[in-house]
Amino acid sequence: MTDHALRMLRHDRRLAELAASTFDFDLDRAVHGHVEEVRLASGGPLEVVAGDATGGTYFVCADGSVLYADSEGAAGIIGSSVDEALELVIGLPGWRDCTRLSPDDGEEKVLACLAETEDEIREYDGIDEERAELRAALGFPERSPVELVRRLRAALLRTEPDFVLLNAEEGCAYDRLGPAGPPLWEPVLAAGRADLARLREGDRTAWREVAEDPVRRRITLRAAQFDRAEDDLELLRHLLRHETRSSMTDELRLAAVLVGLHGDIGDLPLLLDVRETDFDTACGLSDVPEPGADADELRQWARELDESMVGTAPSDEPVSTWTDLARDQGMTELARVTLIRELDSIVMDQSRLRRPWAPHTLDTAPLSALAQDFEELGDLPQALRAQRLYAALQETAWDRASAWHTLARLEREAGRLPQAVDSLATVREALATPGDDSLRHWQRVNLGRFIAEEHYRLTLALVDAGRSEEARTLLTAADAVLDELSDNAAKGVRELAERTTARVREAG
User: Which domain of life is it from (predicted)?
Assistant: First the structure.
């Protein structure tokens, strides 16, 4: 990975002008930056090195890869170095028209696409002599268009998950430039499929290792969900027994269903033992057939659960299934990018939250779940995006107070103190003028205590940030909330309140 060609363009005005005028790789446009502030979802620096006449921008990432972003909100990696990207831009002057091409399309289609684009360019500019001059000067070999398309496609497929571009202000992701990669479930299931194959081969070491590792066990069960075999019964029994260590998981239910589908009545005692593992399993598997059931009843129970809660298509699983398993395997960026795109899709189309059986109401739980997922990933900006929309969509006073309280906490933790102050003001407004009776007992329950605690924590954060006047104002509001609480609810807050009051006084 080198930037030899970039250095030559920067030191040879003739070559730089050729690259800009004929191949639309203009170093002079770098000074203007991109059309909006952007950042990588994964973090890391971005250096603008060139732009084009359409408002697109060429960035160099920390590892040397070149990320191109157009002015319409799409971006993708086009080379592992500036040299590689320049070789592509020069060899395929209409490369943006080739982003959907694949070497599998065949040489005829690739050449036809390139010829059409280059003929349009030739109506206004030369290409051939200029390309030959640049290639010779920069030391680029003459590669076939099919080879360059292959390289372009391979580069674009590297964009996710490490090089996804975000609008810095709004946090939404740029669209994919070129082909989408494999669905998330493919890389997530890869290790599980390998372990399932080892179990089927009778590898006793694998039987022990997979069963004792909760992550490998879950992924192997998921692999078995989508690749079912008649001979799997014994290994499924083995995994089911060990999955009880994790209590009532989705994979425990899955294992029970897969065992039950075989219709072996001898498995009924095992299923009943699993059900009685603890309170959660007793609730989650409460409808397991009772002793004395026959094989048909066992199969019917398993089949009904299979159809309603399990299924045989990975694409039918909720995205959270795959993001959770991705995180468990350390595929953090893959999970993050998938969650960002899931949030983007909801932000752009809130009708996705409509309940099928009650289309005039919204199920906002996915937003709350996304906020929690992003917080667990340490991505507070995305957590704030999800929680802000979640709070705005709440209808009851209780839900509004709770959601805005959580938003205030996230804003404080992200260092957005003025926004957190405003969010707590919205909480107090919900308490003062609820509009319904959902908050009639807020002074006696944990919600009231949590709200008071957040007021004091934010007051301390304001003092630490040197915002003493705002801290004093918020302390007054915090004390007012505390005075409303019942003695039992206030008991756990008084020490924090006293410490905060003393800290405000010290700050003057």
Answer: Bacteria
